[in-house]
DNA sequence: CAGTGGTCTAGACCACTGT
DNA sequence: CAGTGGTCTAGACCACTGC
């Protein structure tokens, strides 16, 4: 019954060791993401602990956003929630009060030797090639974003061939279906700069106007960097909110 | 033994009703903030539930940041953690690589009839007066912030008399000691604008340079708005980060 | 040493989901 | 209806804190 892996520190509380076990299973892809993970009863038997301990381990993972429970159906591996993304904070309505349809267009695709900061963000050796996408996005409010996206070329090889029109508005499901690469989390960084002439033109603002720069590193469930993205949008339509407690 | 208050919906799980009870006690100030709240055993008896239920209620409150446990000492009401504040994201080091000593100076104190948006943020009728403070802050990195602070004048009456030099760098402990007003949480909003001449001069940047505006509403433990604050700092030294999962 | 929270167990019963 | 997670109980033992 006792199917513990090696290496977990026996001094840690049981529920924490169990938590590590479950995270390993998720990272390794051992449990398919569209089916429930083993039931509480199954885990209880497999690891020879009490239900309460299994519940506590799962509780912490639910809390950290890795799992999601659904009464009567089971416990599932959660997809990251990009509602928390900084992109959400471009204003919901444009100057005329209209909400426009979000849209996305790939302008260019090139193979590129990554510059040092990009290679570092992707944890790639600089010799490795990246697939670079230039993209123009329209958000719900009509704001325009100019995006540069770098992907490790070997991992995303299939994307080299596919026609640009077939890239959808949502890239992550596309990565998953075409390349089997699943995004499990991401880290975003916000800074502000002033628009140079080219950016200003693309965003429909004046040169020198403030621009919000959002950088994102997207990671797999095993924490491998999968995508590095740098997006620029007009700062005038940006409004971000935090709760402190 | 059964000391439940009225009004809690009997259809809710016990631990959620207990949670509400505890939140009420905190909001009402019934439990002093510097002493532990009643022990698990005491709550078990007082509300006639099992320890596990008390633990679960407290767990959720710890998780939401209202309480804080300390093994062997007890469970305490937590103070809000302003490390989560957006202010933390002005760069840690200035252009010369020095870290300077944070500082703060009150430039002016006036009684003001609040403009409509400020009255709304403080949930005050526009007839109510506010005490307005103008303040210049230096952060660890040497960035300068220009701050405007509005307080409900009646609630903060003692501050009308005190000499400006006696206002410390940290205002919240000062509010508490002088006026008995404790801050329990806050909401911050970030936007970007360009510096007008006056702001540019105060911040030591050029007119038209981008400026980060942070608005903050600070609330008491009972969710009453206590302070509205609007701060402006140079956008060039600002860098904010979020995790998505 | 007494008192506190932390971990772990064992099991009852309820509520929801899919068939 | 069978199977899943959700709530609640009761109690043992451990680890830390302050006296």
From TrEMBL, chains A, B:
GO molecular function per UniProt: DNA binding; DNA-binding transcription factor activity
PROSITE patterns tied to this protein: HTH_GNTR
The keyword DNA-binding belongs to this UniProt entry's keyword annotation: yes
Top-level taxonomy: Bacteria, Pseudomonadati, Pseudomonadota, Gammaproteobacteria, Oceanospirillales
Protein name: GntR family transcriptional regulator
Domain HTH gntR-type per the UniProt entry, residue ranges: 12-80
InterPro entries the UniProt entry points to: Bact_HTH_transcr_reg, Chorismate_lyase_/UTRA_dom_sf, Tscrpt_reg_HTH_GntR, UTRA, WH-like_DNA-bd_sf, WH_DNA-bd_sf
GO terms under biological process: negative regulation of DNA-templated transcription
Protein keywords: DNA-binding, Transcription, Transcription regulation
Keyword Transcription: yes
Organism of provenance: Kushneria phosphatilytica
CDD domains attached to this UniProt entry: WHTH_GntR (cd07377)
